[in-house]
Batch of 2 targets.
Target 1
Amino acid sequence: MELKNDTLLKALLRQPVDRTPVWIMRQAGRYLPEYLKTRAEAGSFMNLCQSPELACEVTLQPLRRYDLDAAIIFSDILTIPDAMGLKLFFVTGEGPKFEHPIRSADDIRNLPRPQIDESLGYVMDAVALTRRELGGKVPLIGFSGSPWTLATYMIEGGSSKTFSKAKKLIYQDPQMAHMLLEKLAGTVTDYLNAQIESGAQAVQIFDTWGGALSSQAYKEFSLHYMAQIVSGLKRESEGRKVPVILFSKGCNTQLEALADTGCDALGVDWTITLDEARRRVGDRVALQGNLDPSILLAGKNVIRREVGYTLESFGQGDGHVFNLGHGITPDVDPEHLSALIGAVRELSPGYHS
Ligand code: CP3
């Protein structure tokens, strides 16, 4: 099936485009009433992830409302620890939890490297089904968490503000930390390659908690493993390049090092201007971002003005994918996202020749 809109793939590879493509992290989610309805029918978030039909349905929901340039497969980064036997569940208001978090060196030694096709086959089925249903309208993005970000949840047993258990492990017993991260890096590589083989046309690695680490620890415990994954990924499929995006939140001091991993694009958060990020990475990678998600809580005129500033900050030329600097929040009015996408459509052609 021919891809009718390849603006995203071209922009990620810094090829010429006539407008800036746009997609939104967490574009399928709780701010959409149709998502809440499907989740209620599914009974739980995990049922939604594990049913290929329902995961496909919620992946497509934002594309019915908005003129987006990509779909991102509906799933979660924590499917990997679940497949490794930690048993993921969600407590309303408290976020993700594991029945069997990592508590000892033996837990790390005994952690299996999952057979992706068996334990995560539901994700591959969702990718393949969604590709068919998209019918070439826009490309489908696959994703995974970074080894470090996955490790924080596995060691803390859920979300954390301080990451004290995970950080204690890297300082107290770096060898065990490396054993865990090595197992995760291998699994993430297999997982992303399986998504590419099932039809994902670009992939993103979410390193949401990279910013919790010191600069030195970041290089050793997060960046190193992302670089290893990038070099193990299948970079071409169906006769096209498969771009790889790294999103390390809170890591703008590391942009040069991230660009040196061999990835195609970097996701950037809102704490740096695209102008500065672009000067620092030069022509090595494309940039994706970076509107503060909270701007979507303000009025439509503010949203339009801020979209203009973001486009102006990147400036003339190719290699920019419009996105937020982190995921859209559940309190956003869906009409406000329409205003954002409309503004990108209207204002961005002026930045491309
Ligand atoms: O972008 C998309 O539309 C694809 C779907 C997607 C989800 N999670 C769905 C989801 C993606 C890409 C993720 C990634 C993810 N999951 C990350 C990295 C990105 C980021 O935002 O930093 C992280 C850290 C997770 C772990 C996770 N999953 C948490 C912390 C939570 C709870 C969030 C909360 O506010 O309660 C989840 C659950 C989750 N994943 C939801 C969605 C739509 C909400 C679950 C619900 O419907 O109640």
Target 2
Amino acid sequence: MMVVMTPEATQAEIDAVVAKLEARGVHAKVMPGELTTAIGAIGDPEGVRELGLEGLSGVDQVIPISRPYKLASSELSHHEPTEFDVDGRRVGGRDTFCLIAGPCTVETPEQTRTVARTVAAAGASMLRGGAFKPRTSPFSFQGLGYEGLEILAEVRAETGLPLVSELTSAQHADRLAEVVDVVQVGARNMQNYGLLEVVGKLGKPVLLKRGLSSTLDELLMAADYVLKEGNEHVALCERGIRTFETATRFTLDLGAVPWLKLHTHLPVIVDPSHASGDRRLVGPLSRAAAAAGADGIIVEVHDDPEAALCDGPHQIYAKDFAAFAAEVAAHAQLLGKRLA
Ligand code: PEP
Ligand code: MN
């Protein structure tokens, strides 16, 4: 933290701040400037915050200078970029690009199987599919629940594709974790801190989506909730945020990709489907995500999107998926990455 004094602050007021910091065990470094004096407080930022230095006379501002996220930060002890395997499929590898594809929601065994076979044949490394859907309205289709998990398990056995599926409530955690390979935390639950702790304890890789109106700092602090439970296999997902723009369903924040690459060691996946809400945009945005350095994308695919129970307008036609995947792979290759 940095304590900035007012231009009129006296030496006695500066000494009082230093004394208060040192009494708390925080190292204080006084930096006199031309107009004002700043005092660097080197130590536990929470402890410094609790001192309430803003209330002392002669103090103008107390400014945090270290990052609010700890475990997710690339600044801290944590070393090399995080990479991990999901049943042999690399996530976050320097030279691998992870293509996750599948329907928005599991509807029938046939639909799930057809899409899974299509995406597997085109090089997808994992199958996505929701059994529990976080719908904005309680009257919308909520997913097949446990029946959906059973369908996913059958399709996994048939195709060998590892599964990514969303957990919406702690009460389903154990059964979901028995079936899926990667537990997704959806945008609406990014700030459900109790759920994040439950997910952190499951011992499964986690795909953590950015909240609809969450900053990147908040995303990384949410990741800290999972990481602090000892689960280091966390991938982040940029899925579009709310802005003043209404032409697209959300605004895909592609700047988040290189920013996250600078500030965290965790892999970054992009979801162009929910971001755009329009399948015609999914190809260009997926290619842009790959070229911007994302570690992978997660896209929705359906054999008959017009009849889909959820998110029909942005699900790619299964028949178009192979061409789509080839173009994305070509863009990932610009950065030396091949499909995982
Ligand atoms: C999903 O991936 O199925 C989903 C609901 O996405 P989001 O949480 O990003 O809206
Ligand atoms: Mn969807």
